[in-house]
Amino acid sequence: MLFFDEAAVRRLLPMGKAVELLRSMFDDLAAGKAQNQPRRRLNTPFNTTLHSMAGTWGSYLGTKVYSTNPKHGAWFLFWLLDAETGKPLALFEANTLGQLRTGAASGVATALLSRKDSAVVGIIGSGFQARAQLEAMLAVRDVKSVRIWSRNRDKCDIFAAECAHWASICITKSPSEALFGADIVVTATSSKDPVFDAADIAEGTHINVMGSNHPARREVSAETLLRCSRIVADSVEACRIEAGDLLLGLDEQGWARVEDLAGAHARKNAHEITLFKSVGLGLEDVAVAGYIYEQAKALEESETLPMFQDIIRSSVRL
Q1: Which residues have C-beta within 8 Å of that of residue 205, sequence separation ≥ 6?
Q2: Is the domain defined by 2-98+282-314 classed in CATH 2.40.10.10?
Q3: pLDDT digit string (tens) for 114-140?
Q4: Which backbone phi and psi does 47 adopt, to 5 degrees?
Q5: How far is CA 47 from the centre of its chain?
Q6: Is the domain 113-277 a CATH 3.30.160.390 member?
Q7: How confident is the model over 29-61, as pLDDT tens digits?
Q8: Contact (Cβ atoms closer than 8 angstroms) between residue 149 and residue 173
């Protein structure tokens, strides 16, 4: 069984490929050829929570297990197995894996729901997920400029320095300024309350909401949801459990408007406001981990490739 550390995951999974994989996976999910198991949580008296989520697609079966503690951080692992035999194939450090597949899911939704001429991205949040979100936007749209706001100016500065080679980055003084003129909006925060005013969203905007997977937290208001012509979820089933943005902002009539990304149709016109809510799926981890495993096996079989030695150094056989 192979072990992949964070560096190996990053080297073997380009964002463009991750978007392509998830697009195919969501197509198969719509056709009943894939399965997803929503996240489950086990809480302890120590304020530590154990989370698990799973899925199966094609030749692969897998589960992500991770722990979180407000004082001590989070640790992510993903276990990939052969779907036919149940044989364990690989274990992954899964922080980077989660960032990339979460960004890729937003990429799939953005390619479907945003205007094709979208060129300006407004981002609220500058943490570890924001970079992968921007990377996914760049993979599906010709982004010219990025406007970003965060409560933490130091993180904003780091984000701007790291991403300056991708597009023009402007650090703004408020969420309203970050969203002004934005064709695509991304929220990637840990906020429990809405992070922008509904009036800040212009006609024709596409919004990716991905910061929260907790039923008591939300980044967008009920007023924002009312302004949206369409609301699309990575999984309506999973969002019914843990998407505070929707649970706190919609009644049952509102929930009837929410569509699964699997099987969703493209934007109808240039004026509608669209919103994608992502809570993250174990099935997404399966899709990208299977590809990484196949790439590593191909490198192992052709030892003349320059990357081979580096990958083997960071991926040990268990």
Answers
A1: 182, 183, 184, 185, 273, 274
A2: no
A3: 999 999 999 999 988 999 999 999 999
A4: 70, 15
A5: 25
A6: no
A7: 999 999 999 999 999 999 999 999 999 999 999
A8: yes
